[in-house]
Amino acid sequence: MNKTIQHYKKEMKNHTLRVEFETEKFKSYLCKNGDDIHFHFRIVFLPNTIFLTGDLGELTLKPYRENTLPWLLGSYDNTPYMMEKVPHKSQDHDKEYNPELAKDHLYEFKENLTEKLRDGDITKGEYENTIKDVDKLLSRCESFSSEMEFIEELEYICPDWFDSESSFTSLNERALGRIAQIEKFCELYEALNNKSTATIENLSTGCPH
After folding, report:
1. Is the pLDDT of residue 199 over 50?
2. Which among 88, 146, 170, 180 is most buried, taking Cβ atoms within 10 Å?
3. Model confidence at 205, in pLDDT bands (50, 70, 90)?
4. What is the mean pLDDT of residues 102-124?
C-alpha cells in the first residue's frame, strides 16, 4: 500500500459510517470520528456520478453506471482504473511532477544507449557524449518544479527517446488522501453490510419453526 494512503487511513482509524439517506438511485454517507471533523468526508452516489467532499477537498468520479455504489465497491482497490473516471480537467489538479519517474526514464534511456553501442548502432564517442549529458540531467531531476521543465531538457538531450505519451507526474498528497477516504468508506460499508447480513441470518436461525 502507498505510504501516504496508509498514513491517512491511520488518521481515520476511528471513523464510523453514518447513513444520511438511501434510495434506489441516490445515496449519501457521512464518515467521521464522532464530533471530530478531522479528515471527515461525505460521499454521495448518483446515477453515473460519485461525489466525495471533505477537508481534503473534492473528488468526482464518472463511471457512467446507473448504480454507482456497486461499481465503487468493485473498483476501489484498483487506483489507476478508478482514477481514469475522474474528469480530465480535475486530473491536472491532482497530479504533480515526480522526479523518481523522471530518473527511471533516464536510467532506461542509458540502458538503451548501451545496447546501441554494443550492437554498433552508435560510436563510442557518441555514447560517451550522450551519457555525460544524461548524467547531468539525472543530477538535476530533483530541481525541476514542473513536468514541463524536465521535458524541455529531455527533448534537447534525447529527442528520439522522448514519447509524447510519457508521464512524469503522480498523484499529489491531497489526492492520495481522498483515495484513502474512498478506501475507508468501502471498508466501513462492507463491514456494516456484512454485520447487517449476519444479524439477519442470526434472526432467521433463531426463529421458531
Report:
1. no
2. 180
3. very low
4. 93
pLDDT at residue number 120: 93
Percent of the chain with pLDDT over 70: 89
Say yes or no to pLDDT of 200 above 50: no
Q: Give the contacts of 57 (CB within 8 A, at least 6 positions apart).
A: 174, 178
Q: Which residue has the cell 482514477?
A: 83
**Could you tell me which of 34, 35, 41 has the C-alpha nearest to residue 9?**
41
The three-state DSSP-derived secondary structure of the chain is CCHHHHHHHHHCCCCEEEEEEECCCCEEEEEEECCEEEEEEEEEEECCEEEEEECCEEEEECCCCCCHHHHHHHHCCCHHHHHCCCCHHHHHHCEEECHHHHHHHHHHHHHHHHHHHHHCCCCHHHHHHHHHHHHHHHHHHHHCCCHHHHHHHHHHHCCCCCCCCCCCEEECHHHHHHHHHHHHHHHHHHHHHHHHHHHHHHHHHHCCC
